Amino acid sequence: MPSPALPRHRSALPGLLLVAPALAMVLVFFVLPLAASVTGAFATEEGRSLANFAKIADLYLPDILFTLLVIGLSTLLIAVFSLAIAGYLTLGRNPRAVALLRWLYRWPLFIPFIVTAQVLRTFLAKNGMLNGGLELVGLVDPATASNWLDGRAIVFAFVWKQTPFVTLLVAGAMTSLDRGTIEAALNMGASRLRTLWDIVTPQVAGTLMTGLILSIVTMMSVLSVPMMLNATAPTTITADIAFRINAYGDYGVANALGVVSLLMTSGFAILYLRLGLKERT
Amino acid sequence: MKTTFATALAFGVSLSPAFAQELTVLTAGDQNMVDYVNEYLGPLFEAEHPGVTVRAVGTGPGDAGSQKILERFEAQAGANASVWDTDVAVVHEKFAGPMVTAGYLAAYRDAITTGSLVTRANADMALGAEVKGYVMPMFNSQTALAYNPAMVETPPQSYDALKAWAAEHPGQFGYNGIKGGASGVSFVMGWIYAYGEGDAAKLMNGPFEEAETGKWDKAFDELAAFTKNATLTAGNAGTLDMLAQGEIAIGPVWVDMFYSWKANGQLPEDFRLVLPEPGMPGQPMHYVIPEKAPNADLARAFVELATSPKVQAEGIVERFNWYPGIDAGHVQAELPAETWDKLFTDVTPDQLAARGKPFPIAPYNIAILEAYERHLAQ
C-alpha cells in the first residue's frame, strides 16, 4: 500500500540541508564581515560618529573622483572594444581572421592582474616599449618623453584585462541571435558597422550591461594595478584603504572608504536593475 | 600488546616532527628577511640546538607586515590564550612601542649576554615610546640618495643643494611619494626636518604638541612645487629600477637595497650614495619575544645568537649590507677591513652619526603623512 504523501516540511528538509552549508558560508564569511565593516566605518575613539567620513571628505575626495573617472573611462572603452571584437566574430567575412581573433582575444583572461601590472610597468616606462615604438614612428622625442605610469596606465591595464571577459559574454549572446535579422539588414544594403550598431547591439544590450557591471565591481576591488602602475596622486580608493591600514593602522577610515566604494558599486547595480526592469515592462 | 603499542608510540614519536621542538619566528619585511632566517640563522641555531627546528613565517613587506604581527598578538591576547603561537618576532620600530604598551612582550634584554652590547638610543626609545629591555635591534637601516654619477656631477650634500639641482634638471629627481614604501616617506620626513618651521628635535623625541603640526604648511607648499618638477616612481624598488634604466638621475633609497641591487648586478657598479644635510631617517628592526611565547628559553637563546658579534658581522653586515644592530665596535673586530669599508665608502661613519636621523615619533609621523596627503594629493 503506498504511503500517504509526506508532510511538506519533511520533503523540504533535504533541500534546506543542502543549502545550509552554502548559506552558512555566505553568512559567516560575507554578510558578517560586511556588517562589521559597515559598523566599523562609524566607530571612532569618541564613540559612533561621522568623523571617519569627514576625514574622507577632507583627504580623499579627489581620489574618489579619480576612481570614478578611471573606472568610467575603462568601462566605456571595454564596451567599445568588446562590441567591436564580438561584432567582428559575428559579422566578419574572413574565416581565418575570425578564427585567429577568436583564439587570441581570450588570452588576457588567464593572466592575473598583478602580472598584467608587472608587464605594463616595463611596457609603459619612460624607456619602455611603447615610447620606443612611438619614437620609431616619430611621434615621441626620446629627450622629452615622459612615462605613462599614471591614471592612463590603470585604464590601459583594466581595459586589456577586462575586455575579453565582456567580449566572451557578448559574443556568446550574439551567436544565439536570430541570424535572419542580421542577414535581412545586410541584404537590404546596411553596412556591417550599421548592422552591428542598429541591429545586433540593441539585442545584446542586456548582456553587455551585465558584463560591464561585473567588470566595474572587479575593477573597483583591484589593488595591485594602482599600486604598481600609478605612482602619482591622486590614486584609487583601494590604494587609500591599504594605506590607511598599513601606515596608520586606521581601520575606521579604511572601513568608511570601503563603504564609499560599496555605495559606488551599488549605484551601478541599481542603475542596471532599473534598466533591466524598464526592458521587461 | 602493551609493549607493541608502546613501541609503536615510541617509533611514532621519534619520527614525528610534531614532537620535536619547533621555534616559530614571525618576520615582517621583504622575502630577504625570511631567507635570512631560513637559510642562515635557522640552520646555525639548529646546529647548536639539536632536535630544534626553526620555522620562519614571513608576514609581508613594509609596515603592513608588522601590522599583521601586532594584530596576531592582539587576537591571542583578546582570546586569553595562555600560550601564544610565536616564539620570536621581527618587527619595525614603529610597532615595538604599541606592543610594549599593550603588555604583549617579555622584558628579556637584560637576561641575555648580548644585551649589554647594544648602545644606540633607538633600542631604548622607539619613536617616543620607551622599549628599553623589551627589544634587541636586529639591524639598523638607513635611507640616502642614490645617484648616477654620469648624470649628477656634484652630488647634493644638502636638501638645499638638491632643490637647486632639481630645479635645473626637471624630472631627473625621482621618489615614490608616501604610499609606495618607506624610502619616499623618509625623504618627506627629511624635508620636514629641513624646512618645517618647528623644532625637528621635538619631532624626533617628543613630546607631541598639536600646535607643532601647524608649522609645516610652507614646507609642504614648497614640497608640492618640488614634486611637480620631479618624477614619481612606483615603490622603493621602482626608484632603483628607474635609476638603473637611466630614467632618473637621483632618488631616495634604502642603503641595504642599494647595495644588494649592486651586488646582483641590477645597478651599475659606479652608482653612489649621498646622505644630505640635515639628514634623512633610518630605522632599526627589532627582535621581540612575546610574554607568552611557547619556548621562551629557546627564544632568548635564538636572539642571543642573532645579536652575537659574529652573526651580526657575517649575517647582517657581510651578507645583507645592513648596519649592525649592536654596537659597531664589537662587530668591526669580526670583519675584514675591506668588507667594513665597503659599507662606509659613500656615507662615512661620521656622516652617518650626524645625518642619520630617527623617524618622527608616532603622532607626528601620522600628522606629517596626513599633511602630505592634504597638500600633495589634491
Automatic annotation (TrEMBL), chain A:
TM helices/strands, residue ranges: 64-91, 103-124, 153-175, 196-220, 253-273
Protein location: Cell membrane
GO terms, biological process: transmembrane transport
Keyword Transmembrane helix: yes
Membrane topology category: Multi-pass membrane protein
Family label: Belongs to the binding-protein-dependent transport system permease family. CysTW subfamily.
Protein name (database record): ABC transporter permease
Automatic annotation (TrEMBL), chain B:
Signal peptide range in chain numbering: 1-20
Pfam family, one: SBP_bac_8
Keyword Signal: yes
Keywords: Signal
Name of the protein described by the UniProt record: ABC transporter substrate-binding protein
Organism the protein comes from: Cereibacter changlensis JA139
